[in-house]
């Protein structure tokens, strides 16, 4: 297993600053996902790691060795592209064999006619490696086919196999599932996670799909505007975001945001509902209250902290239904997740009451930074500070 360290990486294309001083340590054998919207710099960062782009400033270290100035072929890293990049005129076996021939055979062994004869023994050993990897990926029956005869999922496995035969220090994957349909993407997420556990190698994965990042990663780095806003486990980033932009990006449906106020004693209220705990060191003024859809519940009018609302749309997803609700005068739309059996009688236009669950509110200041509550009994590293 291998460790990667990125120090102060910057990159500009003309007047556009794509990366703004990226510092990132990637642990040996972990599945790290770079996730963020299009244009945030995640693919550029991956290409710099691979050696396909040159950083303007900063250094890249692999197991303590500076590889910043090494060519891509000298870094022992394998890249899996979004487009698969398979040779259409070669069979699956030949596609997987190509990187081994380029690395292991001399120029005589790569000659078009005499090469296979002069390097018969070496080629047999390389083909044995190809067959071993094909067995792991369950594509042995496909070795004689060409890419045009394969489905999207099969082509993805071949692209992975071509990377695996090299036994690289780390796998770099640039949105490899984006060309697949929804059902196949879900299947391939499980396949990639299982492959990572089986190989025990470092995976660095780029995606704009936060569902992929949440389900597969050991850690995920949320990127926006050429910066890493937060780096942590998926559970921590979802439950305890440090920045409003992270909270809004991670989670589907998106987090509900309601306007709130902080008084001179640090007490918070929103829509006339006070929160019990006080903020630590927060200035008096407006704040944003974040509530995940699962943290809002149906309530009765008698409950003191209940807010009245009107159902505008019911999104039935099978076991659960997401109710779109306009609170109060309709200026504050929210979504809440309820059991579909309970939601069955709530048609658009129905009047309901909503309340937040205890320990559910996330508070952000005007600049989008997370505000913490005072007197937390459990350290923030173990549990989010919410109320």
Mind telling me the C-alpha Rg? Answer: 26 Å
Shape: elongated
CATH class of the largest domain: Alpha Beta
Helix tally equals: 10
Based on secondary structure, the structural category is alpha+beta
Q: Give me the side-by-side strand order of the main sheet.
A: 6-7-8-3-9-10
Distance between the termini: 41 Å
Largest sheet composition: 6 strands, mixed
Number of E strands: 21
Spans of at least 5 consecutive residues with low confidence: 377-387
How does the SSE layout of this entry go?
Elements: E1 4-13, E2 16-26, E3 31-35, H1 42-50, E4 57-62, E5 65-66, E6 77-80, H2 92-104, H3 115-118, H4 120-137, H5 152-164, E7 170-174, H6 182-199, E8 202-207, H7 210-216, E9 219-224, E10 227-232, H8 234-239, H9 244-249, E11 256-262, E12 267-270, E13 273-278, E14 285-291, E15 296-299, E16 307-316, E17 320-327, E18 332-339, H10 340-343, E19 351-356, E20 362-364, E21 370-371
Parallel strand pairs: 3-8, 3-9, 6-7, 7-8
Antiparallel strand pairs: 1-2, 1-4, 4-5, 9-10, 11-12, 11-14, 12-13, 14-20, 15-19, 16-17, 16-19, 17-18, 20-21
Helix pairs in contact: 2-4, 2-5, 4-5
How do you describe this structure in short?
This protein has 387 residues and is an alpha+beta fold.
How would you describe the overall organization of this protein?
This protein is α+β, with helices and mostly antiparallel strands and 387 residues long. The chain has helices spanning 42-50, 92-104, 115-118, 120-137, 152-164, 182-199, 210-216, 234-239, 244-249, 340-343, and strands at residues 4-13, 16-26, 31-35, 57-62, 65-66, 77-80, 170-174, 202-207, 219-224, 227-232, 256-262, 267-270, 273-278, 285-291, 296-299, 307-316, 320-327, 332-339, 351-356, 362-364, 370-371. The protein folds into 2 domains: 4-239, Rossmann fold; 253-371, OB fold (Dihydrolipoamide Acetyltransferase, E2P) (Beta Barrel). The chain is 25% helix and 33% strand. The strands form 4 sheets. It has a 6-stranded mixed beta sheet with strand order 6-7-8-3-9-10, with helices on both faces. The protein has a 6-stranded antiparallel beta sheet with strand order 13-12-11-14-20-21. Strands 15-19-16-17-18 form a 5-stranded antiparallel beta sheet. Helix 2 (92-104) crosses helix 4 (120-137). The two termini are 41 Å apart. The model is unreliable at 377-387 (pLDDT under 50).
């Amino acid at each position: 297993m291998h460790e990667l360290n990125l120090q102060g990486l910057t990159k500009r294309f003309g007047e556009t600053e794509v990366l703004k001083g990226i510092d990132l340590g990637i642990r040996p054998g972990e599945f790290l996902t770079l996730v963020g919207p299009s244009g945030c710099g995640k693919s550029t960062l991956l290409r710099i790691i691979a050696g396909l782009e040159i950083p303007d400033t900063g250094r890249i270290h692999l197991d303590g060795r500076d590889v910043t100035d090494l060519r891509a072929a000298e870094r022992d890293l394998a890249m899996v592209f979004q487009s698969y990049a398979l040779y259409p005129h070669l069979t699956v076996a030949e596609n997987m064999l190509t990187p081994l021939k380029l690395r292991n055979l001399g120029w005589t062994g790569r000659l078009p006619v005499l090469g296979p004869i002069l390097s018969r023994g070496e080629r047999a050993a390389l083909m044995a490696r190809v067959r071993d990897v094909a067995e792991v990926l369950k594509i042995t029956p496909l070795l004689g086919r060409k890419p045009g005869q394969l489905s999207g999922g099969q082509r993805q496995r071949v692209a992975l196999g071509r990377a695996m035969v090299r036994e690289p220090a780390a796998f770099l994957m640039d949105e490899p599932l984006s060309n697949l349909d929804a059902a196949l993407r879900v299947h391939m997420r499980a396949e990639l996670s299982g492959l990572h556990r089986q190989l025990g190698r470092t995976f660095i994965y780029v995606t704009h799909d936060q569902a992929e990042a949440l389900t597969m990663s050991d850690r995920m780095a949320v990127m926006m505007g050429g910066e890493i806003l937060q780096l942590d486990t998926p559970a921590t980033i979802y439950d305890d975001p440090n920045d409003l932009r992270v909270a809004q990006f991670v989670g589907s449906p998106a987090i509900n945001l309601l306007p709130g106020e902080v008084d001179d004693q640090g007490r918070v209220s929103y829509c006339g509902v006070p929160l019990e705990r006080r903020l630590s060191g927060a200035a008096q003024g407006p704040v944003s209250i974040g509530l995940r859809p699962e943290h809002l519940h149906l309530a009765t009018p008698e409950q003191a902290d209940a807010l009245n609302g009107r159902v505008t749309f019911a999104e039935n997803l099978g076991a659960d239904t997401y109710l779109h609700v306009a609170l109060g005068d309709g200026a504050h739309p929210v979504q809440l997740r309820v059991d579909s059996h309970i939601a069955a009688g709530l048609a658009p236009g129905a009047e309901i009451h909503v309340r937040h669950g205890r320990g559910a509110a996330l508070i952000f200041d005007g600049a989008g930074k997370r505000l913490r509550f005072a007197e937390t009994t459990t350290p923030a590293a173990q549990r989010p500070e919410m109320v």
